[in-house]
Amino acid sequence: MKYVEAVPEDIFRSEEGLGVWEHRGKVVAIGIGHAPTARRWDNNPETCVGAISIYALRQAMVDAGVDPSHVDGLVIDPVTSTGADWPRGKPIPQVMLDRWEASDDPLDGLTKNSICWLLKNMPELTGIKFAMNASNCMSRALVAAAQAVGEGETHTCLVLKAWNNFEGRYYHGGANDDGSLPGSAALAALTNLWGTPACYATAMQFNEYCRKYGKSHAMMAPFMENSRRNGLLFPEGYWAQHRPEELRTEDYLAAPWIAEPANLFDNDLPIMCSGAYLLTTSERAPHLAQPPVYILNHASSRTLARSIMPTLEEVEADTARTGRKIYEGAGITAEQLSFENMYDGFSLFHQFHLEGLGFRGVGFGEALDFYQTDISIQGPNPVSPSGGNIGSGRSRFWMHTDCIQQIQGRAGARQITGIPAEVGVSGGPMPLGGNFTVWGEAPD
Amino acid sequence: MPKQGVIPDDLTAPFWAAANEHRLVIQHCTSCDRLQHPPADKCAGCSGLEFDWQEMSGRGYIYSYGVVHDGPVRMLQEDQPFNVAIITLDDDPDIQMLSHLPGTPPGEVPVKTSVRVIFEDTANGQKVPEWRVVE
Ligand SMILES: [Zn+2]
Predict the structure, then answer these.
(1) A257 contacts B69? CB cut-off 8 A
(2) Is residue A210 part of a domain?
């Protein structure tokens, strides 16, 4: 087995001018697997992050109609933490040790994943010839897997991302409770002396966006309502499974601030969840159980902030660049996008992604006005038909699942009806530093 | 509003030592003549490894801000809500610093106006640059 500890950076298409992706239309997504979601782990070994990962991987193979022995590739994001970590020094529960084959890292299957642990506990995967880690997001793992299939490293490849969520607040505890910080951390973007929550940079950029363009936080409400509405039509998601509640404008606007102008609902809800896809080649696709969805391109942003945090100007320049890379490599124009599923966790940057794409001609400073028009799945301009993290909890993969399902025509009650689902785009997370995939119903 | 203490490390020691003398210094790449903050081992502009530290005028400008109502740092929670502003330096507007804007009520931040550096004590006595709106 060829084992790649970390996906090499040179496979990512992070520059402009690379032309059409050399494997456009030759790599397809077929199968999808998701385990049931939960708000937090219930200390049951059958629902630990390793267990729900195995569940999703098996579902993706069943869904694709692929025998496990025919899978020859496995690409995973080994990172599964939502930010609420396994407490320092707390012993591994005996039920975990009894239930699962251990790898050399006792935290595998509990607070992270590893190729080794998954293969020990999925003995049916007898044909793996290529395995690779690609952290920190399904968006990155998916791009890495698509490139690996394109390059012939694997012809039938599973891609996995899972999340574990324990008791405790997101990023609370640890260094944030300490009386002092190391000098470097004190000046850093995330952990720092000024106590900025994770959403701060986005809130600060959104504040400047509203000032510059004369917009307001309240103008986000139709997007938030639409996202939750779509999420409630996503049976694989958290809100549909556990809390089938609409998000009304008055509830959104009354929510407590986290870092004003980002409120509670602008922050996604950490959950336990897992997602897996089965990718293969276009030649093999006709023999499988679902229609193929062709990967037309992948593109990445590797831009770094000039100083502590990206300014609005840096965000806009980079999302525009990302949009150009997305279209160039896929050989399409903005007019050919049927729908967009760009990332939304935090909700206040979805408009940066959308404007960078120029979706439906929307330019900088115009997305919040666009949100006041029909952006529903029934209309001709479906925005975030997946509902994203807002609609289904924090996974960073609902948008990819939705692109595949929409184009396969099996998005169920969420199927877009105002326009044929022919070409979609998904990816994230942040405007600076994301990975993006373009999906088509046809190979070119 | 006392901040967590600071334990200077190799990378940031000159920054913190200067702060204790009420001076604001920023890491400067001697190969490509570029300021860099936060400090890093390598220049993000030219990958250079040679740095000195340049003293700044202490004048800046409020680029944007947010108001933290529910933050993760325990020592700051009793002071919520509080401002966190992005300050850009007049010496090089590409260089940012964070500020609680002492003296400015939460949410009443005059963006795009001038600020001056001051130095405040943190919990362990290490001083930290902070910024006040210029009246
Ligand atoms: Zn340099």
Answers:
(1) yes
(2) no
CA distance A265 to A258: 9
Q: Give per-residue pLDDT as tens, A349-365.
A: 999 999 999 999 999 99
Q: CB within 8 A of B67, min separation 6: which ones?
A: A257, A259, A260, B81, B82, B83, B84, B106, B107
CB contact under 8 A, A183 and B67: no
- Cβ neighbors of A193 (< 8 A, separation 6 or more) are A181, A186, A187, B3, B4, B6, B98, B122, B128
Identity of residue B58: G
Residue A185: strand, helix, or coil: helix
Give the domain range for residue A62: 2-169+270-287
Ligand 1 centre to CA of B32 (Å) is 4
Nearest CA among A146, A11, A144 for reference residue A78: A144
Residue A386 lies in a domain: no
Calculate how far, in angstroms, residue B2's C-alpha sits from the geometric centre of ligand 1.
35
Predicted model pTM:
0.97
State phi, psi for A347 to the nearest 5 degrees: -60, -30
Of A183, A192, A195, nearest to B7 by CB-CB distance is A183
HSE value, Cβ hemisphere, 13 Å, CA-based, for B14: 14
Helix (H) or strand (E) holding B35: strand B34-36
Side-chain half-sphere CA neighbours of A78 within 13 A: 16
All structural domains of chain B with their residue ranges: 13-133
> How high does pLDDT run on average in chain A?
96
ipTM of the shown complex: 0.98
CA A150 to chain CA centroid, Å, is 21
d(CA B121, CA B84): 17
